[in-house]
Amino acid sequence: MPAAAAAKNNQSEIQSKKMTIVSTIPSEVENKKAKEIVTKLAAASDADREAVAAELAAHVKANGVLALKPVLEQLKKDIAHKKNAGTRAGAVAAIVALTNENLNHQTEPYVIPFVANLLELQADKQTAIKEAAEKAAKNIVEKINPTANPLLVPFILEGLGNSCKWQTKMLSLELLELLAKTYKTDFIVAIPDVVPVVSDCMWDTKADVKKKATESMGVICSLVNNKDIERFIPAVIQCINHPENVPETIHLLGATTFVQEVDSATLSIMVPLLNRGLNERATPIKRKSALIIDNMSKLVDDPDVAAPFLPVLLPALEHVQDIVADPECRGVVQKALATLQRLKNPGTEVFTKEQKKAKVESSIKELLPENMDEFFNTTVQFMNDVALTLCVSKNFFKDVWTQSLAPYAKTFISAEDANNLAFSALNKCEEAVTPKDPEEEDDEGEDLCNCEFSLAYGAKILLNRTALRLKRGRRYGLCGANGCGKSTLMRAIANEQVEGFPPRSELKTVYVEHDIDGSEADTPLVDFILASEGVETKDPEQVRKILLEYGFSEAMVTKMAIGELSGGWKMKLALARAMLMNADILLLDEPTNHLDVVNVAWLENYLLGLKTVTSIIVSHDSGFLDH
């Protein structure tokens, strides 16, 4: 059974099980105790405050998150208390204690909104309160569930509003830097929201804020993983503070060849610059800006990525088209407009973030137990927001969803049910937010593989639950930019490291290498093949006959060592070994490297002659792939 079908069957089985609420409602006595602790905390001395706050955290730990229900509103009032500094300090201490004792992240949905209050307290007249609030805010940032860190961003950005005090802005910028440095790839999804706000702060009237915003922008933009533009990022940032540098920066970018996929983080820092370029007076700058937009837009693989930026770029290009007199410039603008229009109307369904939000909330709602206490609505909404973040970043790995959702679901259901809910949410949300691709109607021939698989390399997700269908006897080209993971995928398939790909016991896959290890240079050809793992024969005569069939002479078979072979003969040797492994699939990584014209032709004819063996080929030789 294909992996996707198995997953759906498993999901149906999970959903059919009734989830039971395991959280208990605290008694009146316990609720009264919680209120008494908060009252005592508001009146506590500096020496006793931390101990009383720890008492509150211990009470919540013992009784669950519902123990916050009778005191949460009071804490909100206390932290904003204008007249009593001790009351404010008590609320800050409570937040620190609840963050430290966060019940495996279960208190996060209720504590995170206090970040806005902690930022506001940076303008407090009491230095001790200001310092405690700063410590509390950084504590929340450092201890949040990693994939939930983007949920902090809206509260932090509130602290960068025009009406906010400069002290509040300074800590807000520091927290954004801390998020970027701590969570790196998990923070990238927030960059499109962060960049415009931080850009505005780079024009703040307070010199300290302006300087800090520039520093923060550098830290945030350093996460953008696009080698085409990374060397220009400092210049792009400078253009925010110094618009007069825009023409020069556009000139530099105009001389760049763009080859890497363009994502939302890249667009978030490039679109403001290119929009300014289109508004420059000089026609050559308008033309180059349009050319860069055209080139970069062609490298946007997912129309969903471009959607938030089209309302900025399309009107700007249309305006230039209407006013520019130079026909060459107008032609470049029209090409850029045509490329953006294709992204706007890709021919497949594209969901907005709001549409995805509604689909995620609907999907998770179907999985929740009935008759939940309304206090848990905050937890559920937090889960919805985390799931939406994962969907937007196209992170559909089971372990990530379990780590991201299960801790919060454990607030009201058992650990086993929480893990099952996370897995079901993954399947339902991915299906809901992913537009359906038209299926290829190619049913001729035997299916070797029809599955979904995922692949990651270090912290980088290369492929997310990607559909793969292979027919017996076909030849498939594996294409992509340098460094995108082609060889990594081939080796992972050969080493049975690709989740969802049929195991070697079902499908024999062989990675064909002609760059044979130098330690084998003195090994005779027959001995080399017999010693290779996976070769099913141990008969030297059978190996000799196969090598002769592949064009080796008797002298080569009996007298030559591997080190004496040319690149072409090493390729033939590797193919002969693969055939003696009874391969169903050959994985060929740049097979024509170091081959002359004659051997390339031989390899083409050989692969075309394989009627029962499938080939997956990586090659920069387009002529070879075409044949």
Automatic annotation (TrEMBL):
One of its GO terms (molecular function) is ATP binding. It catalyses: ATP + H2O = ADP + phosphate + H(+). SMART domains: AAA (SM00382), TOG (SM01349). InterPro entries: AAA+_ATPase, ABC_transporter-like_ATP-bd, ABC_transporter-like_CS, ABCF, ARM-like, ARM-type_fold, HEAT_type_2, P-loop_NTPase. Residues 472-624 form the AAA+ ATPase domain. The keyword Nucleotide-binding applies. Pathway: Protein biosynthesis; polypeptide chain elongation. It comes from the Eukaryota. HEAT repeats lie at residues 194-232. Coiled coil: none annotated. Residues 20-249 form the TOG domain. Pfam families: ABC_tran, HEAT_EF3_GNC1, HEAT_EF3_N. The keyword Transferase does not apply. Keywords: ATP-binding, Elongation factor, Nucleotide-binding, Protein biosynthesis, Repeat. Belongs to the ABC transporter superfamily. ABCF family. EF3 subfamily. This is Elongation factor 3. It comes from Rhizopus stolonifer (Rhizopus nigricans). The lineage of its organism: Eukaryota, Fungi, Fungi incertae sedis, Mucoromycota, Mucoromycotina. The gene is TEF3_3.
